[in-house]
């Protein structure tokens, strides 16, 4: 059994231990030590990382897994069996995990105490923390939970870790996602939570720092919350602060007025879209009138329009109206010969998809659809595309 030094002191960042075994596995090595401060993956939390040093030689600890009480360190190099080594954790990473995991306990304890919801899922990764609860929470309730959690931080409550006997366990209330065999380890935050947990935690709630719920979505009949605590909460705030500054500069608005500025921009965009829609309708009508002249000279002629820009709805409107005027191929090609064309093609009679496939093959295009209309994109010369459509029948 590996001695779990992180249970003796969760703030231990350096230690010495003996190499009990080292076995190569692929291009990595599996190292077992007499004792370790590296916490293995477990309880929804990823493993600690860091280094192991044997004299002048240093190897990276990439992962740690527990197998029947033995902790196996995955490293990028070998160590000598029987040698004494020094281990050093990436403690900044460890401390952030302890902040976030303790913060999760505080939030989950409050959710259980107030609403009776169980934490049925937990993940503490390198980017985010997520918690799944088996019941819904409103926005107002989430704000209240967040405020109470930060009050727990301000109270700087000492964290208590218990390893009770089976007899003592009968008189202790604690949350647990599963039935636990063997020794049960309970992490208590007096007044807020009592939960079975195998992970290391900070010593007092004050070390958690600010607790911020950053996201909440409906999930499997309950809620999935995203959380940041302490240094990660600070990093999250800085990133969002940078975004708000950049947006406020672009909008020439004060940071606290960004939302109103965005609303005004949305209204302006909506007005421009409506104006553009009317202009596109006029363009379609004018283009149809111009193309109809061909029908007077040649019944059943194709009605094909090439324009630099036209939105998808206007393109379809042109084709729909054009199909009422001719049995030929109707279409719009929007774009340029240099950048390529988006197209919509239709034909009242015939199999328009029989035209689309050879058209795409001839002009390096892609697309498809069902009669009477197809759409896609291609590259080619206007004159050659017109000639191709004149020669091809659907």
UniProtKB/TrEMBL annotation:
This is Alanyl-tRNA editing protein. It holds the Pfam family DHHA1. InterPro entries: Ala-tRNA-synth_IIc_core, Ala-tRNA-synth_IIc_N, Alanyl-tRNA_Editing_Enzymes, DHHA1_dom, Thr/Ala-tRNA-synth_IIc_edit, Transl_B-barrel_sf, tRNA_SAD. It comes from the Bacteria. It comes from Blautia hansenii (Ruminococcus hansenii). Keywords: Coiled coil, Metal-binding, Zinc. Gene3D superfamilies: 2.40.30.130, 3.10.310.40, Threonyl-trna Synthetase, Chain A, domain 2. Its main location: cytoplasm. Transmembrane segments: none annotated. Residues 237-289 form a coiled coil. Its cofactor is Zn(2+). It is found in: Cytoplasm. Residues 1-224 form the Alanyl-transfer RNA synthetases family profile domain.
